[in-house]
Amino acid sequence: MSNKLPIGVQSFEIMRTQGFVYVDKTEWIHRLVTEGLYYFLARPRRFGKSLLVSTLKCLFEGRRDLFEGLWIGEAGRWEWTPHPVVSLDFNQIALDTPETLKTDLARSLADQAHNAGFELTSPTLVSQFTELIRALHRKAGQPVVVLIDEYDKPMIEHLGKGEAGLETARANRDVLRGFFGVLKGGDVSAVLRFVLLTGVSRFSRVSVFSALNNLNDISMQEEYATMLGYTENELDACFQSPIARLAARLGETEEQTRATLARYYNGYRFSTSPERVYNPFSVLSALQQRALKNYWFETGTPTFLINLLRERRYTLPNLEGLQVSQAAFSAFELERLAPEALLFQTGYLTIQDVQNNIYVLNYPNQEVKTAFTESLLLIREGLDLEVSSHVLRLSQHLAAGDLEEFFTAITAIFASIPL
Fold first, then answer.
1. Which stretch of 14-18, 136-140, 199-203, 290-294 has the lowest confidence by average pLDDT?
2. Domains delineated in the chain
3. N or C, which terminus of the chain has less Cβ within 10 Å?
């Protein structure tokens, strides 16, 4: 077995060597792998989906040494029998056209077959996927695990790019529909141990997953709501020393810094349960760099989301306190993109409250609200550099308590808006 670690676990191991205390999520993972077979999980980007997939891969490969000191590593909690794993990361798959998508998927399947000691001979992508799974089962004598990360990237990558982009997204969707359908076929499902697909968006079951309609979507199930992200208790238990170092850098007490971290990065809620989680990427970045910045937001805002909000003439006040039904969370189709579903799925809005089956949405925290507001203002046509500078400094003026400069900037911004 190769000693090379998946990228997500590599990052995790590097942090451990630097003295960072890990947050142990393996009890949730144990529940996942022992209670079901087919799963789907949607979370915003940078929320730990790839690390989850990497961890599952190592778990099913029987790499017990990586789990020493973790909940699942305790004696008797897991059988460490190695299973063959098919792993596909759509961040690493070419997706410019349906042809390149099929070609690169075929290449990935062929590489995994070669690494296992055999070659694929089937003529089509779908039959090659089937052949790979069945051959791995025969060779290992164990059921096969299939892990698919960022399944939706071949579609959402092309949104917001006009009609030509939409046509490519549709064509890629058709490729994926047949490809994922392999996992439900009787000759394949009989030799599977576990299947997980992750992504940002939750396309409806009549779309991409029409041929794989037995997925258990845990995206908004209460028992998995805190599986990704950090809870208040986890932050207190695992990050006391890094928080103390950040507090010293900021010249604050630890209590003040904890309150600041909560205001900046906490607030994501993924079920009717009131418990919320911190954005793990932003928290780790802030603690490692000992500075408070818009880390998550700066990793990239989907162009198609901004374009859609402009097209639908969404105003900023309309985003706060937005009320939707539960159906809005899964109303995601290429032909009818609902802004409410997109904003929730991409992490720009979260559940603030639930009242009589009506979900009230709002920004999760200051990081998202400040950065998203600035982004929407800055893309307005005709906004010159001087006014852009005023927009960017609004939060600085408020943080400094300089109301005179704040209102001067507001006046300049409004003066730039044509009558």
1. 14-18
2. 7-219 (3.40.50), 232-296 (no CATH), 303-366 (no CATH), 380-415 (no CATH)
3. C
Torsion on CA atoms 418, 378, 388, 321, rounded to nearest 10 = 90
User: Given this model, what pLDDT does residue 159 score?
Assistant: 83
Q: Report the mean per-residue pLDDT for the chain.
A: 85
In the Cβ-directed half-sphere of 159, how many Cα atoms lie within 13 Å?
25
Q: Model's pTM, two decimal places?
A: 0.86
Across-strand partners of 146?
86, 195
Mean pLDDT of 145-166: 90
Amino acid identity at 223:
E
Query: What would the two tokens of residue 4 be?
Result: 């090379």
Burial degree of 302 (CB within 10 A; 0-12, 13-18, 19+) = middle
Listed in sequence order, the residues at least 6 apart from 408 whose beta carbon sits closer than 8 Å to its beta carbon are: none
User: What pLDDT digit, counting tens, does each position of 195-231 carry?
Assistant: 999 998 887 655 667 667 778 999 999 999 999 999 9
- The full DSSP string for 236-282 is HHH-HHHHHHHHHHHT--HHHHHHHHHHHH--B--SSS---BB-HHH
How many other CB atoms are there within 10 angstroms of residue 321's CB atom? 11
| Separation of alpha carbons 297 and 344, rounded Å | 15
**Three-state DSSP class for 139?**
helix
